[in-house]
Amino acid sequence: MFENIRLSFKGIWSHKMRSFLTMLGIIIGIAAIIAIVSTIQGTNEQIKENLIGSGDNTVEIALYQGDWTYEMGYEGVPAGVPVITPEVLEQVKDIKNVDNASLYLSRQDYGGVYHLNTALSGGYVIGADENYFDTCNYIIKKGRGFTEKDYTMFRKVALLDKESADALFQGEDPLGKTVEIRKEPFVVVGVVAKSKQFEPVINSIEDYYTYSQDSAGKVYVPDTAWPIIYQFDEPQNLVIKVASTDDMTNAGKEGASILNSYLSTSDDTIKYKAEDLLEQARQIQELGKSTNSMLIWIAGISLIVGGIGVMNIMLVSVTERTQEIGLKKAIGARKSNILGQFLTEAAVLTSMGGILGVVSGIVLAEIISKVSEMPVAISVPAAIGSVIFSMLIGIVFGMLPSYKAANLNPIEALRRE
Amino acid sequence: MILDLKNIYKDYNQDKLVVPVLKDISLQVEEGEYVAIMGPSGSGKTTLMNIIGCLDRPTSGEFLLAGTDVLALKDKELSNVRLNSIGFVFQSFHLMPRESALENVSLPLSYAGVKKKERKERALKALGRVGLEDRATFMPTQLSGGQKQRVAIARAMVNNPKILLADEPTGALDSKSGAQIMELFQKLNEEGVTIVMITHDKKIADHAKQVYHIIDGEISREVGEEARHEEEKD
Questions:
Q1: Model pTM greater than 0.80?
Q2: ipTM over 0.95
Q3: Which of A47, A51, A240, B215 has the most CB atoms around its CB within 10 Å?
């Protein structure tokens, strides 16, 4: 085997130009596949990252009516949806791979939040529990966070995020100033931000509609102060933090089913649902799939054409080396030895083509990403798979020439001078 | 008895015509003999050698090689016979052009499944036997005709075959190199190697202990000096 590989390299090297031209079909095919796969992978990873953020790993479980989040502001508190108790919260925290869980109240308010005459239209008011900022990876950018006393003494204090601070104060320092929520004055004590700032990459108008939903500003108040502005005994939402991105879907589903087991509503469209970002990402990725697989098929055809080229050249090579084959048979080579030698040569040839193809595919992908600003991610399994696949092409298309060589009649072969 | 051929016939089919090439050939060779088979071109001597070398099968007849009925063997077993029991030397050397002398000599060993280290040792030893151990790394293009043939002989001998088959071994060489090859054959024969050589050159055939003539597919044994002189007169 090793001997055959050594011989193959020698043979390929002694016909550099011919070998390269033979490989070219394979090189082009593999390069095309690698470039396509890298672009697809890059786009998919960007979709995932845009939706999930990098390394945040939080899942929000909110109350839904049908396909839409339940609007407490319009519909009032639904009957049969109980307030989530600390015991239920503990149950959620016991789910596998859940690091942390918090309760929060949330309303989108269109005209209830003001600083002087400036309104925060369409912003969210969030009633956060003591754990909330930790669970959601917020850090305090300015001022202070909520203290225990803010909660126990029902203080009317508020935290802003960057968007709400910009919208309400327009560059002024908001600390110590007042924000009016439903006509109740709240004192701004600090500004928070996600510990890992993440900006979704927007390349198109579709991207904008898909990813921009998070950019409405938020105003946070202690959940104990919530009844001052809204209502008592409003059912909360849940946010959980999991160990890794891949745990998000399962933990979210389990969390939702725990909460749903306490529901006793007459309207069974009202349900807790996890905002499954991974699933959403998958759906967006799915849209591009059919075009992509078509491209891969086309590249695959070029590989078959490349394989036929290899077969052609191998047949020429067998004819050229008739004498060598005859001699080898005369000194004791078995059919299997000759078969092995030529199959190895074909496989080595196409594997080299595969490796060169992967390299040029990566270069091509990088060029595409530079020129068109498309995201590109090199897939290692795809690269390894391509090399193995090109080796198989060599074996399949080398079969016919190798059989021809192995079955040569040694007398005829030796006679040919 | 190392070679025992009885009533060997070989016909070739050319279009619809059956051309007899060998007619009723019987030949016995004892171990350690040195035999030359002489004949003009087209007499069937190469066909006979191909049959002895297990590359070709006769149309009919019996052939025992060291007691084994080789005509009953399958293709794969015939390869093993060629590998282990027969060494071939050709007129045009047939060395692998891109392999060094050492690699050429190791080739049969790799088919025999010998490990790399042992392969090298044995190939060097075989090169030593033909006096070329200092040319081990040379490529065939760097060797003279006589040296190439000696490498080919080393390759034929490396698996210690029972019999060395040579087809016009000096045909492509000048007389000086030819004489060296004949000396080498003499030496190998003295060491116990059975040699069957095919040639049309009388001077070369004279080196053998026993000479056969093959004319129009029929073989006859040459008996002593007188018979040889008789033939020359004709």
A1: no
A2: no
A3: A240
